[in-house]
Inverse folding.
């Protein structure tokens, strides 16, 4: 057995020696001068001040008496001597670590990233650790999918790949100015409203009056309406691109537009916008009526010179843009109503504010309400681009309100769809189809509001709006009021109405009396047809 004195004097870790001195301090017995000198020299070696209070020794006072001390070895103080060699190795490693710490460059080269992160995490405060874990979770979350390039960007890429003198290069560049997908969407809403107009209500009582539109005249009007609406929409979109190229260059979604990339000059875009507006409005005036033409012209001015500059001023621009989207269905309805003069729709007031124009306003209301869930979800996905370009959009100005507005106008789809059925524009089947489509939209809008656009809710609402609108418009055409009456009668064997049901009066100068009361039609609604 090694004597205690020799164990103390042998070189080794000073921690157990310090613990032994703790016993002397704790016992309040003044040690001999030789031991006091030994303790003071030990304190100097371990870095403990001579006047340090004795409370610091209380942490390790009973450590030598434990079965397993702070060194992790069994046997307490005496076992530490047996591990002198290992302690010397650890001292050598600590000495090399101190030398490494003196040279930061070598530390960076030798230390692995994992060991540095582990050491930092061990000495990290609890609240900072919680914050770091929260940020790590948010960083590791599934990122939002990047929106695919729009049709204008794809056409611009195709145009730039063509030879400089190629006609396809010019055609693709100018066609990209029209925003093809948006223009075709506007065209779909206009022609759908035209097809939903109840032509059966144009039946007249006097055969001498202008007859119903024939197939040739209605088809010609449809062609004029289609071409005029598309060209007018192309003009509005071109003016929109021409007025903000420097802001489009700041956004990932719009920096590939033809004016930004130099494929089309601003002067060329201006001439293109004026030409398409002139031809489009001329076709609408010749083929439809002045009221439809005036609505189209107002839409061009509203989109290009009110909505476009307002985007950098106030969030009200979204509501103005919704009005722009709601006008095309009203144009299609009025174009259908103006095909005959027998209905009394010979002034713009009659066409816009008569009882027969309710269906057009309801279809316009569907497009007005649809703009908010569609655009608010889209703008949330590219909110950083809008903020960088300085566009005042709810997606970054007030994200909570952005989600509430999308949900609010999604719910508005239900009463508007019921209104189309209530005013005999569509049949009962439309209620079933629109309920499912609107329910899907509201469900995604609720998720968008609940998660504030996170967890893929913004993209889900965007695609729900993309499919919901065609379902409503095509469903309205399929379930148009009176469209399936003949099929229903043939299927169930119901007799058709007598074609000679209407009552005509002969001229009194011929001396022929009018028909009797019993020969009058049974339905009182014929007088209002």
């Amino acid at each position: 057995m090694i004597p205690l004195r020799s164990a103390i004097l042998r070189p080794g870790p000073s921690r157990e020696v310090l613990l032994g001195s703790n016993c002397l301090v704790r016992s309040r017995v003044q040690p001999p001068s030789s031991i006091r000198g030994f303790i003071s020299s030990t304190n100097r070696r371990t870095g403990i001040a001579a006047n340090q209070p004795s409370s610091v020794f209380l942490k390790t006072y009973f450590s030598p008496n434990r079965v397993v001390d702070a060194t992790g070895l069994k046997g307490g103080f005496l076992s530490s001597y047996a591990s002198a060699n290992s302690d010397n190795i650890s001292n050598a490693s600590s000495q090399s670590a101190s030398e490494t710490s003196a040279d930061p460059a070598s530390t960076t080269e030798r230390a692995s990233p994992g060991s540095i992160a582990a050491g930092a995490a061990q000495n990290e405060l609890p609240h900072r650790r919680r914050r770091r874990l929260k940020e790590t979770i948010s960083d590791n979350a599934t990122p939002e999918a990047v929106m695919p390039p729009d049709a204008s960007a794809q056409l611009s890429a195709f145009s730039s790949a063509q030879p400089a003198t190629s006609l396809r290069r010019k055609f693709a560049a100018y066609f990209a100015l029209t925003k093809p997908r948006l223009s075709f969407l506007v065209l779909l809403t206009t022609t759908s409203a035209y097809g939903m107009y109840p032509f059966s209500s144009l039946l007249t009582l006097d055969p001498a009056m202008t007859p119903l539109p024939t197939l040739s005249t209605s088809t010609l009007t449809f062609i004029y309406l289609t071409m005029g609406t598309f060209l007018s929409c192309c003009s509005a979109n071109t003016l929109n691109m021409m007025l903000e190229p420097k802001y489009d260059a700041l956004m990932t979604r719009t920096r590939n537009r033809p004016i930004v990339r130099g494929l089309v000059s601003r002067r060329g875009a201006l001439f293109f916008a004026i030409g398409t507006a002139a031809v489009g409005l001329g076709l609408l005036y010749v083929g439809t009526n002045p009221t439809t033409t005036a609505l189209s012209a107002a839409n061009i001015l509203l989109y290009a010179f009110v909505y476009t500059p307002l985007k950098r001023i106030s969030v009200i621009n979204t509501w103005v843009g919704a009005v722009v989207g709601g006008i095309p269905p009203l144009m299609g309805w009025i174009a259908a109503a103006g095909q005959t003069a027998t209905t009394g729709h010979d002034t713009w007031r009659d066409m816009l504010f008569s009882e027969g124009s309710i269906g057009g306003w309801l279809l316009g209301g569907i497009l007005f309400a649809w703009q908010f869930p569609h655009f608010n979800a889209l703008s949330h996905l590219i909110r950083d681009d809008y903020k960088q370009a300085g566009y005042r959009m709810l997606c970054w100005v007030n994200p909570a309100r952005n989600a509430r507005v999308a949900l609010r106008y999604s719910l508005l789809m239900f009463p508007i769809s019921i209104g189309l059925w209530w005013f005999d524009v569509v049949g009962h089947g439309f209620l079933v189809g629109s309920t499912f489509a609107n329910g899907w939209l509201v469900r995604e809008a609720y998720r968008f509001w609940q998660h504030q656009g996170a967890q893929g809710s913004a993209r889900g609402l965007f695609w729900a709006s993309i499919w919901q609108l065609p379902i409503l418009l095509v469903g309205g055409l399929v379930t148009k009021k009176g469209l399936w009456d003949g099929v229903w009668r043939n299927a169930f064997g119901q007799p058709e109405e007598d074609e000679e049901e209407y009552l005509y009066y002969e001229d009194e100068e011929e001396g022929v009396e009018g028909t009797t009361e019993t020969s009058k039609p049974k339905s009182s609604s014929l007088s209002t047809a």
Observations:
- The mean pLDDT is 76.
